[in-house]
Amino acid sequence: MRLRDNHLLTVLTAGIALGALGVLLAVWGNPENSGICVSCFIENSSGALGFHGNERMQYLRPELIGFVLGSTLAAIAFREFHSRGGSAPLPRLVSGVFLIVGCAIFIGCPIKLFLRLTAGDLTAVAGLLGLLAGVWAGLRGLAHGVHLGRNSRERGGSGFLVPGFFLLLLGFLLLRPGFVIFSQAGSGARHAPMLLSLGAGGLLGALAQRSRFCITGSLRDTLLMGRRTPLLWGLLAFVGVAVALNLATGLFQPGLYGQPGAHLEFAWSFLGMLLVGWISVLIGGCPFRQLIKAGEGDADAGLVVLGMFLGGALVQTWGLTATAAGVPMNGKIALLAGLLFVLGSSLLFRERAD
Amino acid sequence: MLQDRYDKLLWLGLLGVIGTLGFFLFAGSVRESAAVDAGSLDRAMEQELARQAKVSFVEKIYQPVSKLRQEGQLQSALLKLDELSVRYPGEAHGAILKGEILLEMGALDAAVGSFVAAVQRNGDYVDQHHPLSRFETIRQLVERGLREIAPRLQAHPDNPALAESRKQLFYLQSRLAGGCE
Amino acid sequence: MPTFSSCVSILRQGFGRLAIFGLLLLVIAGCEQTKERPKLKIGYMNCNNEQETRQRFVPLTRYLSEQVGVDFEAVPVDTHDFEDRFKAGEFAFTHTNSLLYVVLHENQKLQLLSAEKRGHFGARSAGAIIARADSGITKLEDIRGKRMVFGPMMAPTGYLAQYDLMLAAGIDPERDLGYYAIPSGSFKHEKLVYGLYFGQFDVAAAPVLDLEVMAKEGKITAEDFVVLAQSELIPYCTFGAAAETDPELVAKVRKALLGLTADATALVDGEQVRVLKAAWVDGFEELLDSDYDPIREMAKRANMPPYQKF
């Protein structure tokens, strides 16, 4: 019971920190309603590394680096860093790509979805319904035997590769070599002070590692266990704190229209988050959770992270990403391809009783 | 991990590479030859130069339009824009200038369409600090547009042109609000 | 107990009744099929000539017929004949310039359907008074004593708007110009621009839409002319409906016009023709009758129909 109380406390702390920093990072300079957005940050970071040419979205987001390295440090400190992997690596890589596709259609990851909602952006309601539907669909899949297989401890330290990659990114962030690009205009040029972002990311990474906090995980556990799950309370803490801070800072602007980084194609918002929720349940966590797990040495999550970077490059280069004007045809096709992928994977990875 | 000769060899190799890496990272760049240095990649600078060049270029090619505007020859400025749009089709700056001229001439609905076309092609116009920024103009346009269109839509809720204008104004309003674009 | 023959007899009767019933159904359905669609005429005001009018508006007319379920006939009509023919009940629908719409609305209770969108200003346009850039004429005041060319008298942006601009500036076109002329024949709008361009006239009353079209076609450049004055924006060409036309039909035609998109086609002489492209039109917009008040005011000031006093 004491352990559970400690866990609940950690989850609540993670939720509060996520909600607070999610709003404050926007106040301190990140784009509106995007104090924390894993998909946007990955697209920005992909651009900074030269993986796409959208000059308005190129910035090596310190928060991402903080998430992974904060998780790594916490995992090492509490002896929870274990190299593990080997569960359907290539499907996980592709899942990472489609996670970003789904987020790009909605314009935001599940964390940003809640940040948008808590700022009064009612267009995010469609995304929330989609995320719930996707989590439910994923759970139905799990219940019917769809799973990618367990990963297992691995020799050789494969779990260090992704933290190592992010350590390299930290070096790039601090040293700013000429081949790393930093936007001078657009959302890539909008950022909180570097050290603040890095510190916030590190703190959240550590808390998320300790608490196992995850947005889709919270929804999943709520659907399975109801109010008993600590993650639900973490989510509610996140939402409560974010609403309070948005109100306090004047960022709460309720309405459907004129919302930053939002479009009015609700059906596609629903489908985008449906894809994200569904994939997240099958691979064991939302984009944020994948970063945390990668930091803990989970090579499978590491592949998802690499897939997300690839996805971040593709959505910009191939014009898949939605904008305030709506969802482009290429994006709709990519989303449908993602749904094909998740349906096909469910068929192929389903364990059937003979 | 130091069992036998092979392990030692691997460690030696590792240390050697780390040392060489350290040398190149911290000391080697000073001794790099001029020829190699001249070719080194500084994308940030390249991008900044390209950005400044673009700003100068569009201001130069549309200078005749700006001149006609200053002289009060708004219709002629529009005609000049049409000529330039043949040579530079799809150029966002032409659309933004057209929007401004149409606004000056009182054609609000047509102006909104031009501003939307410009912003969709180039988001710099809604950046507050960009040299090409039209943030304030677009903000005032959105305010005025939404104020004027509301009663018209109330009187004619089925009018598709009004609905389209309102949708465009909401788009501009969303772009002004910021976000990841 | 029924015998075999009685069963056969019952079956035969049943089939017989069924056959008669089926035949009746066929006859009724056939009647519905061959019931004729109403035939109505749309009067299209000639801008230049009948051939051009047909070329532009027959596809649109066919499209409306398909959408609305009425056999419309496109009838080109000269501007000066329009009111009489409309008064005689020849047309259920009209397509005219906005001044003629005002005339028909005031005198014959024509209903407003929609306005045509074309050019920079959408469903509106304006009239400009222009001079050659090298003429030395730089402001409206300078046109006193000069030679001026107008468009057709019933052209809102080729005559009325410019006439009104001059009156507002205190220049009486009947007294203060050297002389003014209106080109003969068709293509008057282009003729007046060329007349100015080649020096036959010092000043021209040019519709801005024509300037736009000619500039796009490379026939003139922005540097060739100076705009001395330009009117406010007024509605462009307009579709109307006769007062006695069935309101349901009017609503259908209005909906069909407003819903027209660039890819809509109609079959004309065995060819699928893009309706809007053929008509030289970007679309249709719903305006209010009050949007035509500026034309009414201009017409009153210029003593033009429908407010002309003799």
Architecture overview:
The complex is a heterotrimer of chains A (354), B (181) and C (310). Helices cover 65% and strands 1% of the residues of chain A. A two-stranded antiparallel ribbon of chain A has the order 1-2. Chain A has 14 helices and two strands, in the order H-H-H-E-H-H-H-E-H-H-H-H-H-H-H-H. Chain B is mostly helical and 181 residues long. Chain B is built from nine helices and no strands. The radius of gyration of chain B is 27 Å and the shape is elongated. Chain B starts with a helix and ends with a helix. Chain C has two domains: 39-119 and 235-301, Periplasmic binding protein-like II (D-Maltodextrin-Binding Protein, domain 2), CATH 3.40.190; 127-231, D-Maltodextrin-Binding Protein, domain 2. A six-stranded mixed beta sheet of chain C has the order 2-1-3-12-4-15. Chain C has a five-stranded mixed beta sheet with strand order 8-7-9-6-10. In chain C, helix 5 (156-168) packs across helix 10. The mean pLDDT of chain C is 91. The chains are: A mainly alpha (354), B mainly alpha (181), C alpha/beta (310). Chains in contact: A-B, B-C.
Fold blueprint:
The complex is a heterotrimer of chains A (354), B (181) and C (310).
Chain A: H1 2-27, H2 38-48, H3 62-77, E1 84-85, H4 89-106, H5 110-118, H6 124-143, E2 152-153, H7 161-175, H8 194-211, H9 215-225, H10 230-248, H11 266-283, H12 287-295, H13 299-317, H14 329-348
Antiparallel strand pairs in A: 1-2
Helix pairs in contact in A: 1-8, 1-10, 2-13, 3-7, 3-8, 3-12, 4-11, 4-13, 4-14, 5-6, 6-9, 6-11, 8-12, 9-10, 11-14, 12-13
Chain B: H1 5-26, H2 34-38, H3 43-61, H4 63-70, H5 74-87, H6 92-104, H7 108-121, H8 135-155, H9 160-177
Chain C: H1 4-34, E1 39-45, H2 50-68, E2 71-77, H3 79-87, E3 93-96, H4 98-108, E4 111-117, E5 124-125, E6 127-132, E7 147-149, H5 156-168, E8 179-181, H6 188-197, E9 203-207, H7 208-216, E10 225-230, E11 234-235, E12 238-241, H8 247-258, E13 265-268, E14 271-274, H9 275-279, E15 283-285, H10 293-301
Parallel strand pairs in C: 1-2, 1-3, 7-8, 7-9
Antiparallel strand pairs in C: 3-12, 4-12, 4-15, 5-11, 6-9, 6-10, 13-14
